[in-house]
């Protein structure tokens, strides 16, 4: 169980101004601690059961040392039991270690205690005395605590009475042997690199033997002990000074000369807190280079290793500590890093947005995470730190890579959309050069992508956008070729329309005036149209950056398209009804009109049969002319067939069966003309015969002569004729007719009334007669 002495005044116990290793503080001139000041809190880090405390991190924080980095030192005290170790530490550092009650004279310090020096960044360790009286002959804990102190402290205070000097056992030479041995075990591979300072404090130094003499005696003893220490292989010749520096000091009797004692202790304190003191003990070469924030892990790790009796090898321990702490620091920085990049994930990965200056922001977040890591982890074992840093960088980059890939994809999509929209807008404009539009669009979108992609390539990554860029370029190609096809399609459509317009009239004219050179005229019109179409095509093809093959294909396509349009027009013009109309027109022209184009009036003398036959044959002769598109000499226009276009077949306009059908239908249609012609001859022949006219003149001669001879009749006749002429000339037959009918109607009505009145009168008279009584 950890036992901790309660400290109710931690704040007063804490230094208000942490002392820098390189600065002299007011503590340097403090001669003794005010007895009333609350001692600094202390902690038993290893208890009687050899269990390591779990409260060290808490106490390190409480003492204000957790964030001290390397700016702290560790001192431990060794010595026999009840030699005033705790007293000395309390006086020197203002700590509150238990001091033996004078009356009891029993061991007070059990296990290992730790506290902080007042006003100093010093961890003070009070180690159980090594007398063995309380523990019997069990040297186990002595060795373990020596190992622990040596592994964690820079300065070891070796406390001994003056009268013990020169006595092997009395001066704790056995303990020193242990110290030397464990030191060799711990630092065997670091000869000369890390030294430990042993400050030998001779207590109750009365001064009869000068300190110099005492130190010489002690030094000689130490060399002797060193010689007797069994050394590892390869280190047989190593010297004590390869591993240790020694300092000696004496202190007067505390009980007999308390003031002198306090004075000397105050002087001694400057060695611990005044770097300018020539005997300053915390020289950099003694520092164990354990960052303060990792001290608790290191210390507990050392103790665990000691307990399990494994070989305690400090470099390995330092590496282990570095690994543990670097992981801890890395994880903490990584958590913050994850929180910082979280807001980017949704817009990039889920919403497909691009974030401007993403690279800069990600780099800043990554740098911050690395800086946090570097700040705390760089103090640890360099090999481990560098490796962990590389690991962390990889871990950070893995997370950032998701955003990088997402942003790259979104840039890709946006570049394509940008390109498509630009094409769409530019190609809508009235005059444009396709190749120029495509080139400008490509340049703009490509630059956009490259700018964004370069921006998000972070240093210290193997990221590359070349694959995505090549995919983008492929897609650009597809988009532009789609746009080109679309433009080609539009152009072909426009050309087809143009061809249709240009061909429509000549085809219609030629087919409505059928004659042997008809098809030649149509082909000529076709060639002319195709020529002008080809000119447009060639001009546009330049703008499309078309290859020669593409242009040739387009030309062939144009010819074919134009031919299809032509055939369509021919089919329209030579549909059944149209062809019959054309035949009838031709027939009527020859049959119903004479050579001067005047309508023919058939006379009995005319040979209707012959005329009819000629006209009909001429019309029927047109059927084979219409039936096939061929030139006058029987040859055909040359055009290449393709898979879906059979040119030879397209030359046939009317099949054999169709020709027969049209021929029969026409014959039936033409028959009524023959009959009509015949009837019109009969009608002309059925006129009033001459003799009848002569008879009529002979019979009416007397009346005619009467009118001529009588002036009244003549005048009346002339007036009637003139009146008739006026009515005819002024077109007054209608009104005259209405007047006459109105007059006749009125006259009839009046006549009817008169008749009715007459009848009424007659009836009344009849009735009167009936009513008159007969005079008897
Ligand atoms: N003669 C003498 N006695 C001292 C001196 N310093 C302390 N003492 C007394 O020695 C006794 C033991 O003191 P501690 O400080 O408890 O000694 P310690 O070495 O810490 O004892 P443990 O922790 O039990 O090993 C106490 O009664 C002190 O008063 C000194 O300089 N000279």
Describe the structure.
Helix 3 crosses helix 7 (258-273), helix 4 packs antiparallel against helix 8 and helix 9 packs parallel to helix 11. Helix 5 (173-187) links the parallel strand 6 (155-161) and strand 7 (196-203). The model is unreliable at 1-31 and 132-137 (pLDDT under 50). By secondary structure, the protein is α/β, with parallel strands linked by helices. Among the domains are: 4-310, P-loop containing nucleotide triphosphate hydrolases (Rossmann fold), CATH 3.40.50; 574-687, no CATH class; 691-757, no CATH class. The protein has 22 helices and eight strands. It is rod-shaped and about 210 Å long. It has helices at 10-13, 56-62, 85-93, 140-152, 173-187, 211-228, 258-273, 295-307, 314-350, 358-377, 382-426, 434-455, 466-512, 518-543, 548-573, 576-591, 608-627, 647-651, 656-685, 690-709, 711-729, 733-771; strands spanning 4-5, 42-46, 73-79, 112-116, 122-127, 155-161, 196-203, 244-250. Strands 1-2-4-5-3-6-7-8 form an eight-stranded mixed beta sheet, sandwiched between helices. The termini are far apart. Residues 81-87, 99-100, 102, 107-109, 129, 203-204, 253-255 line the site of guanosine-5'-triphosphate. Residues 69-286 form the GB1/RHD3-type G domain. It is found in: Endoplasmic reticulum membrane. One of its GO terms (molecular function) is GTP binding. Pfam families: RHD3_GTPase, Sey1_3HB. Its main location: endoplasmic reticulum.
